[in-house]
Structures are given as structure tokens and as C-alpha cells.
Amino acid sequence: AQTVTQSQPEMSVQEAETVTLSCTYDTSESDYYLFWYKQPPSRQMILVIRQEAYKQQNATENRFSVNFQKAAKSFSLKISDSQLGDAAMYFCAYEANSKLTFGKGITLSVRP
Amino acid sequence: NAGVMQNPRHLVRRRGQEARLRCSPMKGHSHVYWYRQLPEEGLKFMVYLQKENIIDESGMPKERFSAEFPKEGPSILRIQQVVRGDSAAYFCASSLERDGAYEQYFGPGTRLTVT
Fold first, then answer.
1. Region B46-71: what's the mean pLDDT?
2. B34 interface with A at CB cutoff 8 Å
3. pLDDT tens digits for A28-49?
């Protein structure tokens, strides 16, 4: 069975600084996808970024980028130039066979 | 293009009543998924449906829970004889296949409270 581990329950970052959120996963599949979702206080799940396991190049979306280490089964999210609106819960997720498996999430706070 | 719609947003039921949660996927999406989120937890997969078919229900409790996605109309998650432990946020997602991945877009969720 696939598992996704987010070992840090909370993190804090100063506005305009950079923060990295960690995620590891376990799978026996060779073909899969990884995602980071953001859940603000409204509880809406918002897709932040995705990474295909077959791609060596790390995905980037504006201020968001990932560090994907396939051999280590690690998938961290880097947020650059942090903004107050980035404060939320962030969930790492693994997808294979159309099913998402989520980690427990990390609460990110942004200090003005 | 409207996003995934769920209603109601909040639902209160007494123990033993039935709860019916509705989900309308994004236009053009034919895949629907239901997830449950308990407090302080990540989302847990429940069921994956395509039109008129259940594809994967490995996350559904064996009793009291059912889901459908009819040819016409929204997908329905039905919980019979609710108990306090069913209190949670229930999220629906829909997807198209894009580059081999089923990129899922989520609705705002239905918060079920069982009193």
C-alpha cells in the first residue's frame, strides 16, 4: 500500500522569505504522480503543483517549486518570496491508478 | 467554466437519519471521486466513479455508505443511519485525463455534523 508522510506538523516563515515543506512517500509503483495541495481556512483544496515520476526535471509554478528525489522517495515543496496569502495547510499527495493518497498535512504560518 | 459544486455546504443530522451529499463535476469531466477529511487529518479516499459505474470503492465503509453517478444529474454520496463518527468534511473531486494523469479538482466540501 502507498503511504505519504509529512513529519512536520507546523512551520513558520517570515514574509518575503523562502520555506521548504518536506514529504516522503512509499510505493512499489514505477509510474505515478505527485501533487501538493493547499487548504486555506475556507477549506477549499487548491492544486499548487504536480510532478510526473518519469520526469527528472523538477516542476515549477511561479513562486512554487519542488525538489523531487525519486530514489529517496522525497518530494519537497519550496515557496519563495512568501506572502501572507500563503498561510494555509499544505498536503502532499501521491496518485496512482486514479486514486490520491494524502499525507496528514502541515500548517504553514506567515509572519508579517 | 464553473468549478466542482457541492451541496449542501453544511449538513446537520441526528443519529439514525440519512445524509445525502451532492456533487456536480466540472463541465466535461466524467470522473468523480469522494474523499473524507476528519479533524486534523488529510483526506482519505472513499470511492471513484465514472458515469453509471463504480470504478474503485476500496475506501468505502462496508455498511451504510453508498455512492452513485447517474447518467444525468449529480453524483450522490449517501450515508444511512448516521452515527457521530460520520461527522467530517466530505470532498468531491472531478477530473479529466491530462498527459496520463487524472488531475483532480476539488469542490468546497460538505461539512456533516451528526448530533
1. 94
2. no
3. 888 899 999 999 988 889 999 9
Q: From CA B5, how far away is CA B60, in angstroms rounded? A: 21
Residue located via cell numbers 496569502: A85
Torsion of CA A18, A111, A90, A34, to 10 degrees: -10
Q: Which three cell numbers stand for residue A84?
A: 501572507
Mean pLDDT of A5-9: 93
Rg (CA), chain A: 13
Residue of A nearest to B43 (CA): A102
Minimal Cβ distance to B106: which of A44, A101, A103: A44
Q: Distance (Å, rounded) from C-alpha B59 to C-alpha B36?
A: 10
Average pLDDT over residues B106-110: 94
Contact B42 A103 (CB under 8 A): yes
Residues of A in contact with B35 (CB under 8 A): 100, 102
Is B1 a residue whose pLDDT tops 60? no
The four Cα atoms A41, A43, A48, A52 give a dihedral, to 10 degrees, of 150
Nearest 5 degrees, angle CA B22-CA B113-CA A100? Answer: 55
